[in-house]
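Hey team,

Filing this mostly as a record. A colleague (T.K.) asked me to run one chain through the structure pipeline before their review meeting, and I want the input and output archived in the tracker in case anyone asks later how it was produced. No errors, nothing strange. Just documentation.

Input sequence:
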Amino acid sequence: MTAMRVIAAAGLRAPSVTLLATSDEEVGSATSRALIESLAKESAAVLVFEPALPGGGLKTARKGVGEFTISATGVSSHAGGQPEAGASAIVEIARQVIDLQGHADQSRGLTINVGVINGGTRSNVVAEQARAAVDVRVTTLEDAARIERTLRALTPHDPRVSLSVIGGINRPPMERSAGVERLFRIAQSVAKEMEGVLTEGSTGGASDGNFSAALGVPTLDGLGALGDGPHAIHEHVTIKDLAPRVALAAGLIARLGDT
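Output structure:
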């Protein structure tokens, strides 16, 4: 909003701008996604005011995110008296977790993290139920589709155990397309006129910009405040960097009005 006031005060020409503020991004944007995508389709470019990368760099690529829950149902029995009569859901989940690691590929930015496992009732009972919560991060739409197919096709090691998988890729990756690069080059030229150096980079976190980028709408992220400690107790922004950041946004928006 301040950047738009700067543009008006300077007598510069600005494009028509829609400001969208959402409140559920950190929990998956379940209620705002449709609105985000609808407005993005009506726009020539999307500028995302998420925090900058360390040093002030813009985000021209982000990983996509998937959340899955794998549930196993086995056969309970007495662990001491009749262990052979049981089929452990916990053992099955453990085997699936090990298998999943083989599908990760750090060189491509494809990560799979099993962050939560629970199941069973007591140590002397062969567990009938177990679950694993899985976080998946991908850098391309191709990998997103592939890993989702892999998870949907999981089969049990023990035929007496059944598996079910719920969830999916809930945020597609933001890929560095030609449109993204074009927006960054414009922002870079604005920074140069301000006698600054603007860098770019990717991040494993996701934002609502992932949705617009996946639709093919040129998207530039990380135009927000500089600071440190995202999601940590020391999370903060640096006040001295706010004015230069506003100037960068104003210059970028005004430049887009000329194109």
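Quick notes for T.K.: The chain has two domains: 2-63+181-257, 64-171. The longest strand covers residues 64-73.
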